[in-house]
Amino acid sequence: MAGWVYLPRFIDKIRLFEAGELHEDYHPNYLHKGFDSKWLETAGLEPDEFVEVVKNSPTDGQICDWVRENVEADESAKELFNDAVLNYGADELNTELRDRLMMRKDEAGMGGRDDIQCFVDFIDADEGRL
């Protein structure tokens, strides 16, 4: 969406939180940690500003248009962010992150799943898409 792989998920998280339906597990990282925070930083936006955009835009298309018009991150910044999101946990040299991914897989009963190689894979599997 507007060149950002994380944006659709982030919009959904904001809408769910505002409706009181965001799962409790996601609350600690909401807006101020993880990919939420990194996207806002890369986009040059404050959390409250973007939440207001989402709350006042009934469609994803309107949010996408707003992002295209108001976010000044260049294509290089988008590519770096997207690559970081899509490969988070895949670098086998980062043993600490790989261990955390393995721990999360084990906790979720997916320890034997070799198709889960990064956190995006884990999220997709955990939410039933993989």
Note down, in words, how this protein is organized.
This protein is mainly alpha-helical and 130 residues long. It has two domains: 1-86, no CATH class; 87-130, no CATH class. It has seven helices and no strands. Helix 2 (34-43) packs antiparallel against helix 5. The two termini are 21 Å apart.
Which ranges are low-confidence, i.e. pLDDT below 50, for 5 or more consecutive residues? Answer: none
Characterize the biggest β-sheet: none
Structural class assignment: mainly alpha
Number of domains: 2
Instruction: State the end-to-end distance.
Output: 21 Å
Please state the CA-atom Rg, rounded to the nearest Å.
16 Å
Oligomer description: single chain
**Mean pLDDT figure:** 94
> Looking at the structure, what is the overall shape?
globular
Number of helices: 7
Strand % is under 5%
Question: What's a concise summary of this model?
Answer:
This protein is mostly helical and 130 residues long.
Question: Main traits of this protein?
Answer:
130 residues; mainly alpha; 2 domains; 7 helices; 0% strand
List the helices and strands and how they pair.
Elements: H1 7-18, H2 34-43, H3 47-55, H4 60-70, H5 75-86, H6 95-107, H7 119-126
Helix pairs in contact: 2-5
